[in-house]
Write a structure and sequence with these properties.
Length: 173
């Protein structure tokens, strides 16, 4: 296994836009994909949550994300080609600030173009949770964090307080 430490909020690597991957089949690209996959699965095993991870979260400044939610695999040089006009709100979390939740607005549907591990161009249409996840992870590649997308400063909360005050109230709606 090649589990890597996760960069936490405040680490400058999270704010630097990533470089495109020139050779998707190179040994270095394959190693980053393996590191991301192993780190994602380890985090999920330890915490009980986690659906995706981006290369800057393990200190790699390249445009690679790994997803394990409805779609499973690596997306190299992903680009959002189309965004729906319809938006939705949700409470988002992040490996890089696991004790925080952030309420954000995201596009309901996105079309993403990317390279797979063999260098082949692929397209993926995502809706709902997968759409949100792809937007979140692609934002990481641009140095943008979920806290930057918060609906307002009042929509950034500790996970413990969310569980105590916000989540119970949402069941009443």
């Amino acid at each position: 296994m090649s589990i890597q430490p996760i960069a936490l909020l405040g680490n400058p690597v999270l704010r630097v836009p990533c470089s495109p991957v020139r050779e998707p089949q190179s040994a270095s690209a394959r190693k980053i994909v393996r590191d991301l996959t192993d780190t994602l699965h380890d985090f999920r095993r330890r915490t009980g949550f986690g659906r995706g991870i981006s290369a800057p979260q393990i200190g790699a400044g390249v445009r690679i994300i790994c997803i394990d939610h409805e779609f499973r695999g690596a997306l190299i040089n992903p680009t959002i080609r189309r965004r729906s006009r319809k938006m939705f709100r949700l409470w988002d979390d992040c490996f890089s600030f696991p004790d925080l939740l952030v309420e954000v607005r995201r596009h309901l549907t996105v079309d993403v173009e990317f390279l797979d591990g063999h260098g082949r161009r692929q397209q993926l249409r995502a809706t709902g949770g997968l759409s949100e996840l792809l937007q979140h992870e692609i934002d990481h590649l641009d140095g943008v964090l979920a806290i930057d997308r918060a609906i307002s400063p009042a929509h950034i909360v500790l996970r413990s307080e969310f569980n105590r005050h916000i989540q119970p109230a949402s069941h009443l709606l």
